[in-house]
Write a structure and sequence with these properties.
The complex is a heterodimer of chains A (301) and B (250). In chain A, 73% of the residues lie in helices and 2% in strands. Chain A has 11 helices and 2 strands; from the N terminus they run H-H-H-H-E-E-H-H-H-H-H-H-H. Chain A has a two-stranded antiparallel sheet. Chain A is globular, with a radius of gyration of 19 Å. In chain B, the strands form 2 sheets. Chain B has a 6-stranded mixed sheet, with helices on both faces. In chain B, strands 2-1-4-5 form a 4-stranded antiparallel sheet, covered by helices on one side. The relative contact order of chain B is 0.18. Classes of the chains: A mainly alpha (301), B alpha/beta (250). The interface between A and B is medium-sized, with 18 and 27 residues.
Chain lengths: 301, 250
Amino acid sequence: MNLQFVADGLLLGAMIGLGAIGVTLTYSILRFANFAHGEFISWGAYMTVALTGAIGFLGGSHAPIGPFSFGFGLIAAGLIAMILTGLLAVALDALLFKHLRRHGSAIIMVIASFGAAMALRSLLEFGFTSQPVYFSRAIQFALPLGLGVRVTPDQLAMLALTLMLVTIMHLVMTRTTIGRAMRAVSENPSLSQIVGIDVDKVFRATWLIGGALACAAGIMVGITVQIRPYMGFDLLLPLFSAAILGGIGSVPGAVLGGLIVGLAESAAVHVVGAEFRAAIAFLILIVVLLVRPTGLFGVKD
Amino acid sequence: MSAAPLLDVSDVFAGYEPGVPIVRGASVSVRPGEIVVILGPNGAGKSTLVKAIAGLVPKFSGRVTLAGEDITGLKAHKMVREGLAFVPQTENVFAAMSVGDNLQLAAAVLAKGDRRRGMDAVTALFPDLARQRGLRAGRLSGGQRQMLAVARALMVRPKLLMLDEASAGLSPKLVELVFAKIQEIRHAGTTILLVEQNARAALSISDRAYILVEGQNRHEGAAADLWTDPAIGRLYLGLGNKTVDAEARP
């Protein structure tokens, strides 16, 4: 068996991991499974497409940097899109989830998130059609890494980006006041208030971070694969598998879970064929729920 | 003593469900420097009352002032900035987080320049905690956890510290230790409002006491008087007659 699946799996896993961080934080801090999270991935990617166009129109440079397919224009567009996607998530909460929270029923929030997901996805189809778009049509030559593994410079850059974002996230969660407050609210919302934490502020930070990281995942999918309105929806099951496998509330767990799901999916393509690829995330989800419902890094209640 | 009360709770109705008050017109007043205890049978609404004061349980009517400021409608997370610290009875530390992180969370309320000093002051009062900084709070013993919870509350140098059953579930030796610490905290200048099941120990360190029954004030007075009043002791506090406490339960 060719070891190429390891490189492909890590890349896929990195995207899933970044998306799963948002899922796991929303699940543990806002206490519901947000099925609209995949749409932040798609919206992030399309916002980057639109912003890249705008930057080009304003005279920004799109000349590729070194061996990569993208230039500073895309990097700038991506950073702005991350903020905008974070704000989109904050706005979705303010318009929808905030009002439902008062009823205190998680199932209402989950169903509402399904509705929000459909609406967000339809808006993308309406605005950009269902035809895939690409950041770049340029063909990249893959670099041989030995053992029959080949990766493109873009793929290496995306892995480096993931490593950077995950490291930043880890430092935010463990070293900063807002990170500690997020962990506190995820463990005990009422004690958090007593301690002086503004829970609404923590909710907003959670949406902002989750949205921004989803956008980063969307850009990665856009650079290495393609951009479609369904790109986020298609990742939803892997995101939840990764979040639950890692243990709800755990950022390192979500990333590790993402890598495992990504590797398992790309291995499955080699072993049982591409048509079963989508089933793998589902299989992992079921096995984890049966064997270790708290996940790898989960804490028992 | 006629000093203006630090905490004044007047005619408060409070409960979890609208229209179902658990606290039904309770009034409590605490003067600066006092230790005051709220006693009463199980289900009397003692915990609900302090949670309502802290802003965790909705108040339907009534008024709460702290140092003359109306804090009746203040959100729970703002109370601590006003100088009112609360230690709930259970789950009063973040078990999944380290002792250090638990204290850091409390210090985050302080201005950046005061955090270091706040940490030092608290670890001076609870030297054990400095050594256990890296330990997960969930791995502390019951007594150590209680100390961490109190240390956390004291981080902001509160005007008033409210403790809900700080002695619950602790061994007699630890109860003694906790109550000694409470006296030490009072001497350091913090006024204290206790809710207690352990009437005997609580009365021995308190200046005044309120007895709450069915969400209403039933008796109030100097701790020493309640202590010696045989009728009150027997009826409400389980003093001298072990079966009474059980009968008083709703």
